[in-house]
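dumping the sequnces here before i forget
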Amino acid sequence: MAHTGPRTPESFYAKVPYLKLLMGMGSDMYRQQILDHYKNPRNHGELEDPTFTHVGENPSCGDTIKIDVRLDDDGETIDYVSFSGDGCAISQASASMLTERLPGTTLGELAEMDRDDVVEMLGVDISPMRIKCAVLAEKVIQDGAKIHEGDLDIDETTTEE
Amino acid sequence: MGVQESYPIDVEAIRADFPILDRLVGGDVETPGQGPDDDTPLYYLDNAATSHTPEQVVEAISDYYRGYNANVHRGIHQLSQEASVAYEEAHDTVADFIGAAGREEIVFTKNTTEAENLVAYAWGLTELGPDDSVVLSEMEHHASLVTWQQIAKRTGAEVRYIRVDDDGYLDMDHAAELIDDSTAMVSVVHVSNTLGTVNPVADLADLAHDHDALIFVDGAQSAPTRPVDVEAMDADFFAFSGHKMCGPTGIGALYGKEAILESMQPYLYGGDMIRRVTYEESTWEDLPWKFEAGTPSIAQGIAFAAAVDYMEEIGMDAVQAHEELLAEYAYDRLSEFDGVDIYGPPGDDRGGLVAFNVEGVHAHDLSSIVNDHGVAIRAGDHCTQPLHDKLGIAASARASFYVYNTREEIDELIDAVTDARDLFA
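..and the predicted 3d for all of it:
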């Protein structure tokens, strides 16, 4: 049987598809970006005065995300987003990156976002089995906004198809 | 290297029966094994989810479709007779495999889950009431846990859970407390698919029978990996799946003591399970056909028997020895890491699987990175969410072994885990 033996981290990083996912088409910058957001999440914690709050999970993965959103005085533009949660690198890094991306966005623009926007933000290919990890935070914020505007009535978001 | 001599079975010869083990992985999942990026050897360590299928079993399926495809129990013509004989004899083969008296005690089902549901619906809905209790263990698979939980809700019965202690064993003192005169059914897993614990099912059967309760043993992880004798363990019901023991998907078996199956009403109604039908009434066919309504999975049933023949040719004592050898090796190698949690009993006292977590690396990230090494393991809750809640974890990684696995494949897993740890450090 073939036995490839231990690889050095560098040759390993250069070769394998999941690392493409973490590092982005072989680029160190993206690897740094996702791993960095996972290890040092931005805007992590809870807001004292959120306009709305929402939670969600991937039941089959155990990924959980809680999002706090504060709107500007116009009641339409996102001023600040924070998150807390637990889960894989993809789900948590995606949430962290969204908290940086969304301020300045209107709720109308938020509602228009789809999974392609998240994949583009992550800058990497996401395998079909992991896409729900990537989009969890986006879906939690979108559902939270809909509940806030009276268009949805659920306690918790899940990403199960 | 002389490695083969150190296994209880002839792994090299066995591997030759499984061409899938020679394929390469890493490419586009829409063109399995065909893409330019399919350049990494496969190390398949996800056998508790499903095992691979040897040539002998694939041939049993193709022989049926190429040679004698026909519906069973329907026609007088030659092909139907050939198919019927092969399908019925498959029940005899499976009965012998687990020490049942004969085909009347073996109902073919879709899988273990369907066998659980058959008993829960056909026996449970009739027999259970608000004064009854059903005793499960905290390590039950959802197939058993969810089924009895829901049947209990419908009937008003109480569900009780035998505690799992810190070492991953059932607390048998607690079991003796829980199983009392209100208990009508004890449903326990034989070998835990998450902890690898081998439960003392014969002792639990004694406890159940002391209180006139029945016992259902979930053998999904035990029948494929060790000798099973349902009469010696005195199980009232025992269930397992073909696809975890070199057979095809879509076929499993429910063993039930003849008198109990005889007393139960059918679970599914339709063709093949009846003896006489009028516009007003119907009577039922003999066992086991009473519980096999409609056209069954004929090819799968016949191939299930071929899988049993394949396993018996290796010898179930030797299979168990090989499983234990690999489990202990994997346990010891994973124990070399700091910051790796392994769930369940010690390496020298478990079935052939090891569930674990690496500190700082989510099980799904771990599984993805390990996959890039060509190593296939399971990540998730393994259909034991309440047990994971009890352990205080959302998910775990699980490596599980079968007759074609080697120590070298476990070494590949260890290398891959090392890389994942370094990446997330």
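Residues 43-151 of chain A form a domain with the Sufe protein. Chain: A fold (CATH 3.90.1010.10).
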